[in-house]
Design a protein that fits this description.
The chain is an alpha+beta fold. The protein has helices spanning 4-19, 22-25, 89-106, and strands at residues 30-32, 35-51, 60-76, 81-85. A hairpin with a 2-residue loop joins strand 1 (30-32) and strand 2 (35-51).
């Protein structure tokens, strides 16, 4: 017989499985001006649960989350099929700042006051 914790985890897991499917990764194809556009994303999920001691004052709880991040689109035409990525501006800005900091750190020596 499953414990209350096992039952809770199974319930949460089944609910999350029902929400996570291939449509979260590959969206509905759209036909626009002779091109078929298929949205592509990455989906991930996590969950946790727990229960207290068994008896009169027992209790439990749990929860989970689903994260979907767009990656780009697959563009299909009569001539070719290609993947067009989504540009993550925040990621590029962070990488640029890190690069600038490394350059400034590397060349700080010649500009020091004595």
């Amino acid at each position: 017989m499953p414990t209350p914790t096992e039952e809770l985890v199974a319930t949460i897991s089944e609910r999350l499985k029902a929400t996570v499917n291939v449509k979260m990764v590959y969206g509905e194809p759209q036909v626009i001006e002779g091109k078929t556009i298929i949205p592509v994303a990455v989906a991930s999920y996590g969950f946790g649960a727990g229960t207290g001691p068994q008896g009169q004052d027992s209790g439990g709880g749990g929860g989970g989350a689903v994260r979907v991040k767009p990656l780009g689109v697959v563009e299909v035409t009569a001539e070719r099929t290609r993947f067009v990525p989504v540009v993550d501006v925040n990621h590029l800005a962070v990488l640029g700042l890190i690069g600038l900091a490394l350059v400034l750190f590397r060349f700080r020596g010649p500009f020091r006051r004595r």
